[in-house]
Amino acid sequence: MAQVEATTERVVAADAETVFDTLADYSGAREKLLTEHFSEYEVHEGGDGEGSLVHWKLQATSKRVRDCLLEVTEPSDGELVEKDRNSSMVTVWRVTPAGEGKSRVVVTTTWQGAGGIGGFFEKTFAPKGLGRIYDGLLANLAAEVEK
Questions:
Q1: Which of 47, 49, 92, 134 has the highest CB neighbour number within 10 Å of its CB?
Q2: pTM of the predicted model, to two decimals?
């Protein structure tokens, strides 16, 4: 089983604190940022960053739906980590200043992929598909914070 990694980034015209707070607001703003690939969104615990427990289903393809139960931590300033209790998937959001009134958002998701030929195709195609999903989410984030 090989580790699969997908990374997407975007510069947003808002300060890093505003962007981070929007991403960490699981009980309010976060649900609005999600694309049509996400469903059954629920906050089980917390709702504001560290200590939150959030559920959603992620439909990466027409046949592939991942049921996610995410524990949220904030290991350092500007970093939000979502660890899925149902799989090896970990998503890390990093928000850093990128000049006057701007910030860079980098989202990286990793998981242990399948073995064999299926794993080869997963490692080849899954990062591109997940990248498109996160491009949409980051576009929604930009629209939300650049108001």
A1: 134
A2: 0.91
